[in-house]
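Reopening this ticket.

The earlier resolution said the output was attached, but the attachment link was broken on my side. Pasting everything inline this time so it's all in one place.
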Amino acid sequence: MPNQTIITLNIRYGGGPRVSAILGYLKKVNAELVCLTEFREGQSGKALLDGLNDLGYGHYKQTEAEPGQNTVVLVSKCRFEPSGITVPFDIDHHVLPIRWKGLLVLGAYFPQGKAKAPVFDWLLRGSQDWLKEKALIAGDFNTGIRHLDEEGSTFLCSDKFKALVDLGWTDSFRKFHGNERKYT
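Inline output:
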């Protein structure tokens, strides 16, 4: 597989027994920056970070959360800088902004249900400023476009997801797959 500059993975429930497989996959793709969602503190989280360090990802930042709570971690093979963006306390374990190689990266994990609405609202409020520069939201949105990214109409906050695209963000999955009925 060719070198991927940036990759995002939902590791599901902190990775658990899949940590070795996750590390094997990341070794194979050899990305420069990795965004892991549903990262969790604990034994699996430590094993994952130790393994990533062994793979050359010597720089990392994670959001703080309660044990067992899904969060975000960004790991890189090169240094990155703080973004200067303050994330509100009520969503600070869901969004992790950094500056990496001239790019504003917002690592994000959107929780399930209505709990994701404040994350979308905050991103929508800041988007106008952030889109003035090179910027990327990477992570797990836990939503999509109704009737295209799902069977039926079950997504919550689909309108907010579409509003991000309408503001100028690119849905990279759809950019490469068009309206093809495919899912991530």
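Reporter confirms the inline version is readable. The radius of gyration is 16 Å. The mean pLDDT is 92.
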